[in-house]
TrEMBL record, chain A:
GO biological process: peptide transport; transmembrane transport
SUPFAM superfamilies registered for this protein in UniProt: P-loop containing nucleoside triphosphate hydrolases
Keyword Protein transport: no
Organism per entry: Nocardioides mangrovicus
Molecular functions (GO terms): ATP binding; ATP hydrolysis activity
Database matches in Pfam families: ABC_tran, oligo_HPY
Keywords, ordered alphabetically: ATP-binding, Nucleotide-binding, Transport
Region called Disordered, residue ranges: 1-21
Domain named ABC transporter: residues: 59-299
Similarity comment: Belongs to the ABC transporter superfamily.
Highest taxon, organism lineage: Bacteria
Name of the molecule in the record: Dipeptide ABC transporter ATP-binding protein
Listed InterPro entries: AAA+_ATPase, ABC_transp_ATP-bind, ABC_transporter-like_ATP-bd, ABC_transporter-like_CS, Oligopep_ABC_C, P-loop_NTPase
From TrEMBL, chain B:
GO cellular component: plasma membrane
The name this protein goes by in its record: ABC transporter permease
Superkingdom of the source species: Bacteria
Topology in membrane: Multi-pass membrane protein
GO biological process, one term: transmembrane transport
Organism: Nocardioides mangrovicus
Domain ABC transmembrane type-1 stretches: 120-322
Residue stretches spanning the membrane: 44-66, 116-147, 159-184, 196-215, 246-266, 301-322
Region of interest called Disordered, as start-end residue ranges on this chain: 1-24
Keywords: Cell membrane, Membrane, Transmembrane, Transmembrane helix, Transport
Record Gene3D superfamilies: MetI-like (1.10.3720.10)
UniProt record similarity statement: Belongs to the binding-protein-dependent transport system permease family.
């Protein structure tokens, strides 16, 4: 962020109502624990099912006749589920396609391929007229509060706009409703007449949240909602989101670029790399026993309060090199150019996202806990290839174990190499 | 005479820093009110504004004053000229006297103040009309190009390139007689008005590309901002997005481009007079007065000096005003 986030005192100066929940916790290590962890309910019905979603942006040549000379494979076949009132974290480095995924689900983009089922209906091909009623159910919180609010509109008209567009309430009821929403997000309801520039970054993000809440959505896509904010203010905003989720039962797709932010918010986390999900699991597995080298590297960068307090510290895994271009991704496993344990098979065969636990899927030929990666590929039986990645005559792909949204009742046990059931 | 696009590029309304947000006023200050406040605090811009406002008022008054005979830019005063010196005014300082405050014109004896005063009216009218033509064309085409993109955008871009690479001065010179005659016949107007219309049309038709480029760039940058996506997600119609979300953010660059185009055309009018294009005497414009005075730069220096000074004042004050408006609208832009 270019402009300095105000000090805590300034933050609460013009527009903030102070309440106990707003207290600033100075220790950044504890910051996200303020409201406790939300727990997963894996039995709840999915509100959103994304299956093999792809978004390829054409790359045009320069000059008068602009031919398409390639495609940015921003999102390349992701599948996941978000259950009612639950929240899924989507984590990955800059440019891995998180925002694009969010924008596909909110249908700001039309996917190149794949399906987006919202409450059982595929909305991936909907036109703008069909989408209109859906807009009420799926909303988005944007990353940068400085550009997500129109500087020429008052806060009242920003938050009131959805009410007017959808004619949810008669026009004389818009203002009371706006004030109510301002109060819900912890802003002074008398400030409806002010302009965005009169608020601090954290307050502007609250305005954006209020706008997203106006239509009482069932699913909120939060695209790095706190990345642009100061650490102390991040905690307040996350706590606000958590309170809102508990109160209104909104399902969240929570996008973040590191694992620390989503830890206490999301009972389930998906890790993305270069347009693909490389690992998805419940919180305990992702943070306690991640099996993908990339997740392990990401996790090593997260400051761990507990370990720090007992004097131990995880070794920081440094990834070599840059993220390859999504226009021309590496063959086989996309992570192989930076993977510390890559072998020949990784360049030859793409590792499928394979269920290896009750709530755990991973896409790696050598999936295993840190330091315990197996010596031979675990994927050969499922893919029907040998250890070097060459096809084995007569072998079959076990597609029942591969790449479905959600979790199956049977999965591959990594120790035995055999399918097991719950 | 071309507008500096670089001056205008960073013209997005930016969030204002804490000095404004810490004020205790309960009612919100809109970005335009804030800009106005910033403008008022800027001394130089206020001076420029007062100067601009005063000659605009004088220009508006001139036709009335001419009509009631308070000033007379057309009456000859041969008796004030020295026939032995080739029609140079008698007396010191180009014939300055109580009844001719800035002296009289060599050769004709017309009152210099009256001619300059009335000349401002014509010069500003031409500049304003040309600015309107180029701004309307530029804004409309710029918005269309920016909104629509694709083939329409590419086509408009091509036309802009073509127009900018066109040797307009040459065309002005070569074709002026033909076109002026055509305008005269088509609209059934006198030669002077036809000259004026021709000048305005040419300035406007060659001036719009700069404005269009600027506005197109602004539209593209506004379209990229997340509040547009937010509006789409809230179910706003295309119409609503254009008129309620984008257009309010375009007024600032339009206004600044307008105030910076005006002075460019005032000086262009003067330059064109040297090339014998535009309104001709006896109807005074600052350009044709200066053109007529240049021969006397040595023998009657003040007669040359006054119109040159006035043009300079007009151009500089308009530019300062434009800069002031830009700074007030966008406090973060640095020069
Ligand atoms: N409209 C677009 N046209 C072309 N390429 C795009 C477009 N949007 C995104 N991309 C490309 O797609 C890839 C993924 O972008 P995306 O914005 O989804 O990443 P991200 O994970 O959200 O990154 P960040 O953390 O920086 O926000 C990037 O390489 C980006 O350059
Ligand atoms: S598949 Fe190979 S390259 Fe990819 S993460 Fe696993 S070990 Fe590394
Ligand atoms: Mg992003």
């Amino acid at each position: 962020m270019s402009h300095a986030e105000p000090t805590p005192a300034a933050e609460s100066a013009p527009g903030e109502q102070s309440s106990a929940a707003e207290e600033i916790i100075p220790d950044p290590g504890h910051v996200f624990e303020a409201h406790g962890q939300s727990e997963a309910d894996f039995s709840a019905k999915p509100i959103l099912t994304v299956d093999n979603l792809k978004m390829y942006f054409p790359v045009k040549s320069a000059g008068i006749i602009r031919r398409t000379i390639g495609h940015v494979q921003a999102v390349d076949g992701v599948s996941f589920e978000v259950r009612k009132g639950d929240s899924l974290g989507l984590v990955g480095e800059s440019g891995c396609g998180k925002s694009t995924t969010g924008r596909l689900i909110t249908r700001l983009y039309k996917p190149t391929a794949g399906s987006i089922a919202f409450e059982g209906t595929d909305i991936s091909g909907y036109g703008s007229r069909q989408l209109l009623p859906l807009r009420r159910d799926i909303q988005m919180i944007f990353q940068d509060p400085a550009t997500s609010l129109n500087p020429r509109h008052t806060v009242g008209s920003i938050i009131g706009a959805p009410l007017r567009i959808h004619q949810v309430v008669p026009s004389d009821k818009v203002l009371p409703r706006v004030q109510e929403l301002l109060e819900v997000v912890g802003l002074n309801p008398e400030h409806y007449n002010r302009y965005p520039h009169e608020f601090s970054g954290g307050q502007r993000q609250r305005i954006g949240i209020a706008r997203a809440l106006t239509l009482q959505p069932k699913l909120l896509v939060a695209d790095e909602p706190v990345s642009a904010l100061d650490v102390s203010i991040q905690a307040q905003v996350i706590n606000l989101l958590q309170d809102l989720q508990n109160e209104f039962g909104i399902a969240f797709l929570f996008i973040a670029h590191d694992l620390a932010v989503v830890r206490h918010f999301c009972p389930e986390v998906a890790v993305m790399y270069l347009g693909k999900i490389v690992e998805i699991a419940d919180r305990d597995t992702i943070y306690g026993a991640p099996h993908h080298p990339y997740t392990q590297a990401l996790l090593s960068a997260v400051p761990d309060v507990r370990q720090a307090s007992i004097g131990g510290r995880r070794e920081r895994i440094r990834l070599e090199g840059d993220v390859p271009s999504p226009i021309n991704p590496p063959s086989g496993c996309r992570f192989r150019t930076r993977c510390p344990i890559a072998r020949d098979i990784c360049a030859r065969v793409e590792p499928p996202l394979m269920q290896v636990g009750k709530r755990h899927k991973v896409a790696c030929h050598f999936a295993g806990e840190l330091g315990q990666h197996p010596a031979t590929p675990v994927t050969t039986g499922v893919l029907g290839v040998d250890d070097e990645g060459h096809d084995v005559a007569g072998a079959q792909r076990r597609s029942d174990l591969l790449d479905h949204p959600g979790y199956q009742d049977t999965w591959l046990d990594l120790k035995t190499g055999q399918p097991v059931g719950s | 005479m071309t507008l500096q696009t670089s001056q205008l590029e960073s013209l997005e309304p930016t969030p204002v820093e804490s000095d404004e947000s810490s004020t205790k006023a309960v009612a919100g200050l809109s970005p335009s009110r804030l800009a106005l406040r910033r403008f008022r605090r800027d001394r130089l811009s206020m001076v420029a504004f007062v100067v601009v406002a005063s000659y605009v008022v004088l220009a508006l008054l001139a036709p009335i004053l001419v009509k009631i005979g308070f000033i007379d830019p057309f009456k000859f005063h041969q008796n004030l000229l020295d026939a032995n010196l080739g029609g140079i005014p008698k007396g010191k300082f180009g014939g300055v006297s109580g009844s001719h405050l800035l002296g009289v014109e060599p050769g004709t004896g017309r009152d210099v103040l009256a001619r300059m005063w009335y000349g401002v009216t014509f010069s500003l009218t031409i500049a304003l009309a040309a600015t309107l033509v180029s701004s309307v064309l530029g804004v409309v085409l710029g918005i269309i190009a920016g909104f629509r993109g694709g083939l329409i955008d590419a086509t408009i871009g091509r036309v802009i390139d073509l127009t900018l690479s066109f040797p307009q001065t040459l065309m002005l010179l070569a074709l002026s007689t033909v076109f002026v005659l055509a305008i005269q016949n088509a609209l059934n107007v006198n030669v002077n008005l036809a000259n004026g219309i021709y000048e305005v049309l040419v300035l406007g038709l060659f001036g719009w590309p700069t404005v269009a480029r600027l506005i197109r760039g602004q539209v593209l940058s506004i379209r990229e901002r997340e509040f547009i996506d937010a509006a789409v997600l809230l179910g706003a119609s295309q119409r609503r997005i254009y008129f309620k979300e984008i257009l309010p953010n375009l007024w600032a660059p339009i206004l600044v481009s307008f105030t910076l185009t005006m002075p460019a055309y005032v000086s262009t009018e003067a330059a064109l007079s040297f090339l014998n294009v535009g309104i001709k005497p006896p109807t005074p414009t600052l350009g044709n007065i200066l053109d007529g005075s240049i021969n006397y730069a040595q023998s009657d220096f003040l007669f040359f000096f006054f119109p040159a000074l006035l043009i300079a004042i007009i151009v500089v004050s308009f530019n300062l005003l434009g800069d002031g408006i830009r700074d007030a609208l966008d406090p973060k832009s640095d020069r």
